[in-house]
Structure formats: structure tokens, C-alpha cells
Amino acid sequence: KVVLLNFFATWCKPCMQEIPSFVKVYNGLKEKDFTILAVDIQEGPKVVKEFIKKNEITFPVLMDSLGKVSKVYQPVNLPLSVLVDKTGKIVMRHEGYLPEDKLLSELSKLLPYVVAPGEKAPVKETAKSHEPAKAQEAQAQGGAPEQESTMAPEQPSPGPASGESKPEETK
């Protein structure tokens, strides 16, 4: 998976400002090859749990109570965001507030289904793109083109009608 490590503290204003866009990106990509791991630096579990609940954080939040992990990445300013590709290579290090468009731009370089802001989604070639040729061929032979059904049977919804899931709590 592509991983965004985000070092933060509950008292950090830029950290709080980027949470809504991180939640949005995480919720949109968590079923694919992407995750966010937030790392709280040296705060107590009670404070962090309240922060998670208040900010409706849906991605995993880890506690670096002793500061051992943050010593490895050595953040000078918070938040610190580190983007790691599927091979484990650090491809981006960003200190301070990380705007959503910059995050999406970086993710688009690593994940083909992520579209950077201002870019168009790639056109997917489907069986339908070959239908005009089939229709012309069938008409030339004096018949009608074959029609394929693309309708799938309706499936019952697996979860609540709102589609919302409960955030995971850390222990």
C-alpha cells in the first residue's frame, strides 16, 4: 500500500486544519492501495481519544508516547507528512499544513486511479468503444448488431442506509 504517515499533536492548529481533507481522501481510497497512519507525538491516550472523536477521524491513529518513532523522522515543525510508496521508499516529506490538492497531486503519481486537481480522468477503453465497428460489420452482413446486457441484478445494501461507518477507536 501507499502510506501517508502524518505526525501531529492535538494542540497543533495546522494539524487540525488538514484533518477534514485527510478524512475525505482516506474515506475515498481506503478500499484501494492507500492508507493514512496518523502518529500522535507524546500525548496521553485520553487526550488523543477525545481528539479523534471530536474531529471524526476515521483513519488509524497511533501513539508515540515515548517519542521513539518521531526521533526517526525528526519533525522540525508539525504537522509532518511523509508519503511512502508501495516499495517502502519515501517519496515526499512535507512539514506544515498539507493542502488536499498537493496530497492528491502526489498520490496521482503513485496510484493510477487518483486524478490530480486540474487534470482530466483518463478515458477507459471499454467493450462499448468497439460497438460501432460491430454494428457496421453486422449491417454489412445484413443483420442487426448483437446487444450485450450491462445491467447487473440489484443487490441488497450491506450496511446502514446512510452508508456511513463508525470510526475505529484506538486502544
What does this 3D model show about the protein?
The chain is α/β, with parallel strands linked by helices. It contains five helices and five strands, in the order βαβαβαββαα. The protein has helices at residues 13-29, 45-54, 68-73, 100-110, 131-140; strands at residues 2-8, 34-41, 61-64, 80-84, 90-95. It has a five-stranded mixed beta sheet. The radius of gyration is 22 Å and the shape is globular. The model is unreliable at 126-141 and 144-171 (pLDDT under 50).
Choose one word for the global shape. globular
- Write down how many β-strands occur, each being a DSSP E stretch of 2 or more residues: 5
Report the biggest beta sheet as strand number plus sense, adding barrel if it closes.
5 strands, mixed
Order of helices and strands: EHEHEHEEHH
Ends apart, CA distance between termini: 23 Å
The assigned structural class equals alpha/beta
- What does the radius of gyration come to? 22 Å
Strand order of the largest sheet: 3-2-1-4-5
User: For the residues shown, what is the average pLDDT?
Assistant: 79
> Unreliable stretches, pLDDT < 50, 5 or more residues?
126-141, 144-171
Strand content: 15-25%
Number of helices: 5
How much helix, percentage-wise, in residues? 25-40%
TL;DR?
With 171 residues, this protein is α/β, with parallel strands linked by helices.
